[in-house]
Amino acid sequence: MVLATVMALGAALLHASWNLVVKASGDRLVAMWAQGLFGAIVALPLLFVTGLPPRAAWPFLGTAVVLHFSYALVLAAAYDRADLSVVYPMARGSAPLLTAVGGALFLHDTLTGAGYLGVAVAVSGLLFISRKGGWQRGAGWALATAVIIATYTLVDTAGVRTADEALSYVIVLLAISGAFLTIPVLASRGRSGVAAAVRAAPWRHLFAGVASLGAYALVLSAVRLAPVAYVATIRESSVVFGALGGWLLLKEAFGRRRTAGAAIVAVGIALLIGTAA
Fold this sequence. Notes:
Helix content is about 85%, strand content about 0%. With about 280 residues, the protein is mainly α. The chain has one domain (about 1-275). The mean pLDDT is about 85.
């Protein structure tokens, strides 16, 4: 469990980093497309070492491509409508609870009672961070994103457990998803618009791509070692990193509410890790 915990925390930091890049980009849809595709292209040579995922994993990959494609579109729409510090906690904060239920129902992954308490406390803190009083603009998109996150997490967990290896699965997944996302990106932005958006910040897109690939490879490696609800909840500590990044780098509000929410998240994750000790 120690290795899975370290992997999930590393994934959290990387995940918050690439989300900051997407939110700070002038064109969020192009940024979502670029980070996924660029990361996969950089990593494609590794397939000569790892080989392709086994045949049994491809049905999961096919389903996951559709889900990740939908995730990119919905998340970009959410970021166009609300602050990172609202969308990110709400989307990522709701997902672990859905993942915990789905993991128990479909993957036979269970936690102890204290483990589920840790998940509930952490989710409460994550949602507390995003709440400013009343229903927020973009909240519906953020919650739709949460449903997609939980669903693709379960599908990909089943896929990497079938494949018995995570890296090649993630590389192929991001490459195919990025290729499919090229179609709506070009249709809505045109080649000149896409080229201009990429030229405006090529190194940021490349960094985000590598961070995205690394984050998800770490997560899918971790779910081979620990229950999916455990990994998903710890991974979502990225919300605290994201809220801090939004405050420090994007000049978004943080304040006492988000400080208290971060403390609640820390308590929940401590409870969860304590059950695995």
